[in-house]
Structure formats: structure tokens, C-alpha cells
Amino acid sequence: MTADRGDPELLDHLVGGSLAWLAARRDCFRLPPDATTDADPNLTLKPLGELAELTHLIASSHPRPDLRAAAEGLFAFAWRETREGELFAELIRGEPHATYPVEIYGAFAQAGLRHPAVEELVLTTTGLRGWRVAREDHTRTLGVLNAERRIGLAQHAGFDAEFALSGLGLLPEPWALDRKAAYGLTHDVFHLTDWGRNRRRLSPEAAGYLRLWLPSWLENWLEEQLWDLVGELLAVAACLPAAPYDAAAWQRLAAARAADGSVPETGAVPLPDDPTEAFRACYHSTLVTAFAGTLARTASDQAVPGPVAARAAAAVAGPTPCESEAAL
Predict the structure, then answer these.
(1) How much is the pTM?
(2) 225 pLDDT more than 50
(3) Which helix (H) or strand (E) holds 179?
């Protein structure tokens, strides 16, 4: 990895192609009539929440206005699918202890999109004793704490204390990092930095650990052609100070992309013949590619002087401080 400016043309091409594919298939993100009752949230609410989370970041930080506009359109679509927040009120009434409605709502609340009933409900439900029950892992707890912060709620636990017990916080032996742990580690970074908006929250120790070991991890999952995880690791790289740019990894990710702009989660095209299965096989990796490309683009812009760099830096500098049903 090097700390050069990267390749803005390649990055913009990847972001633009990904957003175009997502826009052309936005109907696949639509929620079914039973979204609040019988539908599997992993197949309905989770994709919509991921769309909202990542397109909001792109819309608020990418230096190109056309790509920001494309992301803004997808984010607005996601909000309309929630019936401008009414969906979350129904979900919270049905599952008061569930965290996923709060996590997804947090992405919209951060953008200034609020729903009065949801605001009232979360004040009650997040104060319940059951809300403080330990999550299945510390990474998931970081996601919940981030959502509470975004909404303006009192955090039910200390973020720094939870982070210290997470995969990244413990600085685990790098040679023992398996696929599940790698996804957890990338999300530790995303929750800590608020999805790249506040890169300064990475401590020198964590940043040094990542800078040292990311090249090896990237090479491993490039060889396995796990493009989804490759994209997440490239996003993590873009969160580092003086963000390193791995030109070879980006070229290999670009080569994995299909002609229509989609990026398969793993392996090589062709995708399944069934449109629904094909969508599920690549929507997240395509979203992650657009997200990682945006972070890499804004990181490289911050490395040079000028008005574009100043605007990008202001866009990603956020305030200091969706595994289960809906976390990314």
C-alpha cells in the first residue's frame, strides 16, 4: 500500500457504475406488505437499511455532484419505503426490545429525517432494563450505541469500554483472523469512525495495527475472491490517517465487476439466473464498492490542497462521539 492520491478516475467509475446498477434495481429493495409481521428482516429490512446507511454517506461526501445526486435519490427512495418513518413506529411497538428498528432509523435521524411517534417510542424502549441486556457481540453493541448517539438518546453503555472489548479493540493475533472476525473488525472501524465521517477517532495504536496487517488480509481474500470483504477492507484502509491506497487491490476489484456495474459477493460472474437470487448475490458487495470508493476518493482529496480537498474534509469530519436483523 502507498499513501498516494490513488486513481480518482477508476474510483469514480466504480462508484458511478455501482450506483447506476442499484438505481436500476431499486424495486428489489422495496418492502413487502408483511414487512412488519411475517417477512424475514434479513431479506427485507436489512438490505433497505444498508442502502440508506451507505447512500447517505456517499450523498454527503462524494466530491462529484452527479454521484452525490444519484446517492441522494436512492436515500430518498429508502425513506419513502419506510413510509417516512411510520414503519419504525410499527416495528418498535411490535418488538420493543429489538435493536434493528432503532439502528436503521438512526441513519435517517442523522440526516434530519425524523418521525414524532418513533422519537417518543425510543425514549421509552431504550430505557427499559431489557434494552441493556448484553448483545451477541461487542461489535453489535457499538452499532446500537452509534444509533443512540445519532438519534440523540442517552447511550446505554460506554462506547470506549465496549470498543476496548471488540475485535479491533483487543488487537487480536492477525494470523488467526477468520472471515467472521474480519467482518466484525471492519465494522468496529465503521462504528468507531461513524462510517468514515470521523476518521480521527482511530487511535494511533489501532491505526498502526491496521496499516501493518491490512495488506496481508487483503491478499488473502483477494485470492479467495471474496469481493464483499475486499471492499470492506479497502473502506477500512481509506479510514486510516494518510490513507494508504492499494492500487493492485482496487484494480482486481474493478476486474471482478460485471458489465452492468454489479460486483459479485464472491467468485466470478455469471450470477444466478433467478433475478431475486442474482440481486441478493451482489447488492451488498456493489453497495460496499460504492462506499469504499467514496471513502478512498475523499481520503485522496484530503491529501492535496485546494477547494475540493477542503469541501471533502468538511464533509467527512463528523461530531465526536445494521448480524442480525438489520445491521450491515
Answers:
(1) 0.89
(2) yes
(3) helix 179-192
Contact 283, 42 (CB under 8 A): no
Residue 268 CA to residue 278 CA, distance in Å, equals 12
**CA separation for the pair 78, 103 (Å, rounded):** 14
Residue 2 φ then ψ, to 5°: -125, 160
**Torsion angle in degrees (nearest 10) through CA of 141, 143, 149, 155:** -10
Instruction: Give the pLDDT confidence of 134-165 residue by residue, as tens digits.
Output: 777 899 999 999 999 999 999 999 999 999 99
**Which long-range contacts link 107-113 to residues 24+ away (Cβ below 8 Å)?**
107/49, 107/52, 107/53, 107/56, 107/150, 107/322, 108/52, 108/78, 108/79, 108/82, 109/150, 109/151, 109/152, 110/56, 110/150, 111/56, 111/60, 111/75, 113/79, 113/84, 113/85
CA distances from 33 to 26, 29, 82 (A): 16, 13, 11
End-to-end alpha carbon distance in the chain: 26
Q: Which residue has the cell 471482478?
A: 256
Q: Which domains does the chain have, with CATH numbers?
A: 8-316 (1.50.10)
Residues 227-257 have pLDDT tens digits of 999 999 999 999 998 888 999 999 999 999 9
The three three-digit cell numbers of residue 211, written as one number = 496499516
Q: Rounded to an integer, what distance in angstroms lies between the CA atom of residue 298 and that of residue 301?
A: 5
Is the separation of the CB atoms in 289 and 238 below 8 Å? no
53, 107 contact by CB (below 8 A):
yes
31 contact partners, CB below 8 Å, separation of at least 6: 39, 44, 45, 48, 81, 82, 87
pLDDT tens-digit series, residues 255-278: 999 999 999 999 876 667 788 888
Comparing CA positions, the residue from 74, 48, 37 lying closest to residue 294 is 74
Q: Model confidence over 75-109: pLDDT tens digits?
A: 999 999 999 999 999 999 999 999 999 999 999 99
Rounded Cα–Cα distance for residues 14 and 17 (Å): 5
